[in-house]
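question for whoever is on the cluster today: can someone run the full assembly for these? two chains, 895 residues total. i dont have access anymore since they changed the login thing
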Amino acid sequence: MNIDMDNAVTFAREARRFRLLRWLRRISQGVFLALFVLLLLFTNIDALDAPDELPRISAPVVLFLEMDPLVAIGTVLSTHSLYRDLLLSLVIIVGTLFLGRFFCGWMCPMGTINHMIAAVRGGRMKGRARLEANHYRPAQRWKYIILVLFLGAAAMGSLQVGLLDPIALLTRSMALLLLPAWNVLTQDMYAWSMQTQSTVPDFIVTPVSWALHAVLIRAQVVLFENTGLVLLVFIGILAANRYVTRFWCRMLCPLGALLGVLSKTSILGLEKRPSLCSNCNRCALHCQGGDNPEPGTDWHQAECHLCMNCVASCPDAGIAFRFFPSRNESTQAVNLTRRTVLLSAGAGIAAVPLLRTAVHPDAPPNPALVRPPGSVPERDFLSRCIRCGECMNVCPNNALHPTLLQAGAEGIWSPMLIPRIGYCEPTCVLCSQVCPTGAIDEITEKEKGWVPQVDGGSTENPLRIGTAFYDHGRCLPWSMAKECIVCEEWCPTTPKAIYFETAEVTDREGNYLWLKRPHVDPALCVGCGACTYACPVKGEPAIYVTAVGETRNTQNRILLEKSSGSTHGGG
Amino acid sequence: MQDEPLSRREFLSRSSKAAGVAALVCVGGWWLHEPERHPFARRTEQAVIRDLRVPGITPSLVVGSGSAPAAVTAAVLAGLGGMEQFIAKGDTVVVKPNIGWDRRPEQAANTNPDVVAEVVRQCVAAGAKKVYVTDITCNDPTRCYNRSGIAAAAREAGADVLPPAEARLREVNVGGAMLGMQKVFDVYLDADKVINLPIAKHHSLTKVSLGMKNLYGILGGNRSRLHQDIHNSLADLGNFLRPTLVIVDAWRILLRNGPQGGSLDDVEERRSIAASVDQVAIDSYAGAAYFGLTADEMPWLALAERYGLGTAAYETLPLKEVHA
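^ ran it for u. tokens below:
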């Protein structure tokens, strides 16, 4: 009797602690989600009120990607090195080895969004249906298979983890879709409020436009090409929560799978006390991971997100999280046979040469694939780029867009310059600064070398990204007897890569005109695309940029140049 | 399932519901199909002319030289009779320097920041309620505003530095020979006074970029098409926006590789600043004095004269030289 009383007091204290932990978890999720969005916003330096300093990224804007163990392990496999601050991933790795998947339950912004959507009751997501959907199911193995596939491909030098890594996926979805959509909405409303000032009284319009101005992200319209599939994937992930709680986290997430594998050594675990349990199933009803917390079943440690919902909702002290829990019921580790692992890894490895058979080594590089300045050679690029979209997010000119098949199926959603929409800003190196994996190697303004520096920088060896060419049939002075030379006006190099000859031209009435006809000097052109951007000929421009001449590919050239490293200019 | 006979009441109620909704849809459709709501209807909007010149001032030409740009600017303004001549108490003023390119002041692609700051200070001192400094740049606005030194200098002098914003462009009919509907930054449509503050620099199509060329920066949208008839376009811009005052910064002038330059070899230090309320005369004078061009070599001047914007014969205006 006395012992029971003591136990009751202990259990009540324990239950309070778990409820407190659940609140801490909720706060942690909120803080990390807010931090994630804030860092994305800090990546946009194009605020409506120009800051007094030149654009420079000082906040750790890619912190989440640098902490991401899947990005770190994936790039280690594909490049045999750990780029810059990817070392931060050790924080999560070590934490997981001791505690389990705390990242999934407490930190992951994608997990938090899924959690919030799944938490809305209704439709199929209540009562018995919810309970049944919450039991562990064999389909939860898919994510391990996806993980092993990706790691197999990474070992072959093709880094595909970013397609489904939750941090890369959410960064891409937010930066390329959600923030631009918000921006278009607020800009339209702001424009409307500024234009109704004469018809609506000031005391209404002024606060409204002030508030809209405050929530504007960028002063210009920023939209991205080729994002349809990004949107479908993102909406699919969110919608799946209406059928199975955190469907994405349980079934598909390769980062969750990796952390599940790492959680095998965890010293924190769920202790089940069947003698105290009244089989109310509340724990299972609120379970996020689908790991069978209820006594009488096997707990799947690798599936648990440590959300604390089960222990916080238990009325009987039938379950508890403890360090070094006593194992009076069996605990299951990752439910995967050696055969499945080997087959998945083999498939991942085989996929890479199969994907690459589509590209003959002698085939010229895709002329439309103009990579941002500082990009490493294409093979290395594909072993580093995780398609997070941060380079596109930070680009002040909206010049970088995700590819579809321009870089092959292997390079979907990697960055490419579309000069018609925006040119590469001559003094800007922001994309190289934010790239978390070194696909765009970090460069300085001087290394880029496009603009002469007052402080004595050299423009003799610029980092070229392509070369411009004229389409004489569309060019006004070349074929329409009209003046123009906007391209020459915009050309940023010194001396300008665009020069002109003055030619005598007859128009259709037979009048003689002297017109300036532009030419490109490929020895000076850096491929920035300012000419294409400014060209007044809409539709196909009269001057366009292709990747030929790019510094990163010694084969993709026009002119005979003295090769570096050889005094005789040989190979 | 058993068929219930349809009662008269139910028949009437269900049919009238359907008929009611149908009637609403029809009325709505009829109302929406009015011809003036046709999406492709051509808008013929009244032309807007922003004549911001102060009446009763006899045009003159003041040219200053000296050792510091701010002091020379102040001397030039004093030579014109003081800023109070142009700015009334409570005025909203837009100062429009050239901030087009991501270049430092030494590269002479943008207006000298000290000149901008001095003009702002004098506007504030003359009682202006608000002084905006703005330009729709070519390069990334944040870089242009900062690297040019203009954002910091103007802000310190008391101006509101307004970067270009898509949402603040308003489409108006500027009523020119070439230019009709154009997207204009809304500050120019609401301001009481505009001071045009170009830098004198080379341009390969117009030979030189001066006051009227600087007015490109009030436009958003597709302004690169304007080059196809640039002289008419320049005159049209000057006709639409007739500035209160034009001050040409020739402290450093860009001789080659304009309008953005880059190399210091292309820059010449002229240490000169010129101003006039006559925007044709000042362009004509600056072209002649700094680039050796005759009025015939600057065809937009004659077109602007035809609008009655001023005279290209700057020699006919009283010339005052000041030194500081």
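summary bc i know u wont read the tokens: Chain B touches chain A through 43 residues (CB under 8 Å). Residues 260 and 267 of chain B are 11 Å apart (CA to CA).
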